[in-house]
Amino acid sequence: MTDIDQMFSPNYFTARRRFVEAARFRQWQLDRIDVTCERTLDLPAQESPLSIDVATSTGDRSLPTLLLTSGLHGVEGFLGSAVQLNVLRDWQPTRPMRVVLVHALNPFGYVFLRRADEQNRDLNRNFLLDDEHYEGSSTLYGTLNGLLNPEHTPRRFDLFIPQLAWCVLRHGMGKLQAAIASGQYEYPRGLFYGGSSLNPIAEELSLGLQRWLAGTSHVVHLDFHTGLGKYAMQVIARHAVDCPTSS
């Protein structure tokens, strides 16, 4: 097995096991937040509940802290988990610091290869500031909703590509990207849906961060994401033909 194979796990359960074992080997502090949801009830007993696992280095709590989080967009957790595992196994800081690793912020999406959580919430659009509200979407998104999030299963001649091409010609690619990717709170089954309320795990996670980061002088937070790229978009397009629904 190559070094890459040892870092990039084939699934969430292997990634979680490797992460926990590496943290224990380093004798770092381990914490766990269990995540239960309806669809995970059918998983084997040894694989449920899912969890967000946190490894914290020991030592002076007043030191600057590096906070690394992974899996906010579930399926993107493969990359973040690999980086965190590499930190646990091999990384040697060049200066004194504490390290806090939060593994798999969205374990449901990680398991089922989804970007969103069980409620179709896009979590980086779910954590709002105190003066923000779970409401609104762009007018253009509303216009595109029927095309982006059809109520029916794919049909052989649904003219999706011609309709999409017409939208690009009419509105421009820049406006379409901004309208779609900026997030929305009106269409629960739609892309980039931020939810109607805060994810229940967020409050427990917030309290945990207060403990894990208590006493530190400075915090640098890196959250790992991936980009799809041309190859991945082609794979998704081929896979979509076999998908019974978009939800």
Strand content: 5-15%
Kindly state the number of beta strands.
5
Task: Record the strand order, biggest sheet.
Answer: 1-2-4-3-5
Spell out the helices and strands N to C.
Answer: HHEEEHEHHHHHEH
Which secondary-structure class do the elements indicate? Answer: alpha/beta
Main sheet: strands, sense, barrel: 5 strands, mixed
Approximate shape: elongated
Distance between the termini: 36 Å
Q: Give the overall pLDDT as a whole number.
A: 85
> Count the helices. How many?
9
Fraction in helix: 25-40%
Poorly predicted regions are: 239-247
**Over all CA atoms, what is the radius of gyration?**
20 Å
Question: How would you describe the overall organization of this protein?
Answer:
The chain has 9 helices and 5 strands; from the N terminus they run H-H-E-E-E-H-E-H-H-H-H-H-E-H. The protein has 247 residues and is an alpha/beta fold. Strands 1-2-4-3-5 form a 5-stranded mixed sheet, sandwiched between helices. Helix 2 packs parallel to helix 3 (77-90) and helix 6 packs across helix 7. It is elongated and about 60 Å long. The relative contact order is 0.16. Residues 239-247 have low confidence and may be disordered.
